[in-house]
Amino acid sequence: MAELKINGRTTVRKLKADFKAAFGSSLRIYMSTSCKGKMADDAATLASIRAEGAKGGELSVKGNKTVGKFEEEFSANWGIGVQVANASDTKLADNGVTLVAAGK
Length: 104
Prior knowledge:
The protein is of the alpha+beta class. The protein contains four helices and four strands. The chain has helices spanning 12-23, 46-49, 67-78, 99-102, and strands at 3-7, 26-29, 58-62, 82-85. A two-stranded antiparallel ribbon has the order 1-3. Strands 2-4 form a two-stranded antiparallel ribbon. The two termini are 15 Å apart.
């Protein structure tokens, strides 16, 4: 089973690459929890862009987690909005499918 460990020292670029390698789906990372507006800079670390008051820490993600649950947990941890998209990053994944299924 695919698994990914995420912490505040992870850069946006590395997280997107590791996410794609682990689950086959694409990850869009925004500067706000609403997932509207500015996308996060690829060179930034998660700790440097997390929202004020967000706890940060480490998150362990397995491929059988649903897209919706992952997006909620990520936002709760770092105060950063993320959206999971298909492998070619052309369409957002349904919140009810698993992270692995989103990449197929």
